[in-house]
Design goal:
The two termini are 12 Å apart. The protein contains 15 helices and twelve strands. The chain is an alpha/beta fold. Residues 15-242 form the MOFRL-associated domain.
Length: 439
């Protein structure tokens, strides 16, 4: 028994090392400096940063421009915002904290300041936008008569709907003065460069932080169809905006994008590749399921559990690795997130299968939760998960039905707690399969 427990504990450590390799590859210290542009010859460098990586990116940009390039501070200005707990200690660029996933007053103040700075740009200036996931909630500028409380109600309705992030953002863009390319409109005639960290499947620039600096290919009809499809109950001010064709976003070909450039500088695929390499170094055959998985968390868990059992039956010591962003359709009143729900559904589907350990976590360090920096990143399971739960009087299927994966894993002590990672390239799931359960 002791040997078995030691083997399980070692697999836990390996799974965490693989996950950490993905997060390390995604951190801006690994890549940002190589992408930072030279400052403009005469004008100002206006830095605008938003999202979960905004703090780390702003710190690195400050060091690059002020220390390495010796740019005069008078020519370097801007504003940065990240979710509460993700802000960094900047020394020149002011930084605020804002709500996520539900926006707050910090979101309003930050979007207002970003729009003001962008609108001040002249043809001699360079507007450098450092963008990452979470920017949708961190930059909120309600359109029309929409108030903050109503915008919060919209976000909550979208989060509970089970809609993929791309569809959520299609709706959000019609309710905003900054999303869907409108920050680019404000920045013209200044030159605009966006360096983005992708947290969305297929790295769609229009979906990353709701695409504030790129033309929006989606339509008002798309937004209305999404509201109808999910039966969303929205405030009257939001419905009025969605009914008004004047709320449409700028499209490809708009002159505002003529002087604009957009580069994705970190992708989920980069992090998954690092995880694959770490799994191979640990002696596992890596099986890369891709960085762009989508779908209901419990359905994906059932499919991956079946794949893991097949690999074990074939005698393969393997690591199933996948990224992407899963969804949870909320039917209960518990606490959790897609990674924790995936882990709980996976444990039920594996039914105590020996020799399998799995970790599912969000590379940003928080999975669902209440918007606190202390929220868990995900959870870990193994062959003992269900038995230990029963010994504590827990009912896994009931916890899953109530969407209470946080409560379940908290009681077991199996939450993945990383704290804020200051980056965000979506989820990383690792399933380790050892054909010999005592190996």
């Amino acid at each position: 028994m002791e040997q078995r427990q030691d083997a399980i504990a070692e697999r836990h450590r390996i799974a965490r090392r693989i996950f950490d390799a993905a997060v390390d590859r995604a951190h801006p210290r690994s890549w940002l400096a190589a992408h930072l542009p030279p400052p403009p010859p005469q004008g100002r460098l206006i830095l605008l940063a938003a999202g979960k990586a905004a703090g780390s990116m702003t710190q690195l940009a400050e060091a690059h421009y002020l220390d390495t390039l010796k740019l005069s501070p008078e020519r370097f200005l801007g504003h940065a915002v990240a979710r509460h707990g993700y802000e960094a200690q900047t020394r020149h660029i002011p930084m605020l904290a804002a709500g996520h996933p539900v926006p707050d007053e910090g979101s309003i103040a930050s979007a207002t300041r970003a729009l003001e700075l962008a609108a001040s740009a002249t043809a001699d200036d360079l507007v450098l936008v450092l963008l990452s996931g979470g920017g949708s909630a961190n930059w909120v500028a309600p359109a029309g008569a929409l108030a903050l409380a109503e915008k919060q109600a919209v976000n909550k309705a979208l989060l509970r709907s089970g809609a993929p992030i791309g569809e959520m953002n299609i709706v959000r863009k019609r309710l905003s003065r900054i999303k869907g390319g409108r920050l680019a409109l404000a920045a013209a005639p200044g030159r605009l460069l966006t360096l983005a960290v992708s947290d969305v499947p297929h790295d769609d620039p229009a979906a990353i932080a709701s695409g504030p600096t790129v033309p929006d290919p989606s339509t008002m009809a798309d937004a209305r169809a999404i509201v109808a499809r999910y039966g969303l109950s929205l405030p009257p001010a939001a419905l009025a905006l969605l009914a008004d064709d004047a709320s449409e976003t700028p499209k490809p070909g708009d002159p505002a994008f003529t002087g604009s450039e957009y580069r994705i500088v970190a992708r989920p695929a980069d992090a998954i590749a690092a995880a694959v390499k770490a799994a191979a170094q640990a002696g596992y055959e890596p099986i890369d399921l891709g960085p762009d998985l989508e779908g209901e968390a419990r359905d994906v868990a059932a499919a991956q559990a079946a794949r893991a059992k097949e690999l074990k039956a074939a005698g393969r010591r393997a690591a199933l690795i996948s990224g992407g962003e899963l969804t949870v359709t909320i039917a209960g009143n518990g606490r959790g997130g897609p990674n924790q729900e995936f882990a709980l559904a996976l444990a039920l589907a594996l039914a105590g299968e020996p020799g399998i350990v799995a970790l599912s976590g969000d590379t940003d360090g928080t999975d669902g939760g209440g918007g606190e920096a202390t929220d868990p990143a995900g959870a870990v399971i193994d062959e003992t998960t269900l038995a230990r739960a029963r010994s504590l009087g827990l009912f896994p299927a009931q916890s899953l039905a109530q969407n209470d994966s946080t409560g379940f894993f908290s009681a077991l002590g199996d939450l993945l707690q990383t704290g804020p990672t200051l980056t965000n390239v979506n989820d990383c799931r690792v399933i380790l399969i050892d054909p010999r359960s005592d190996s």
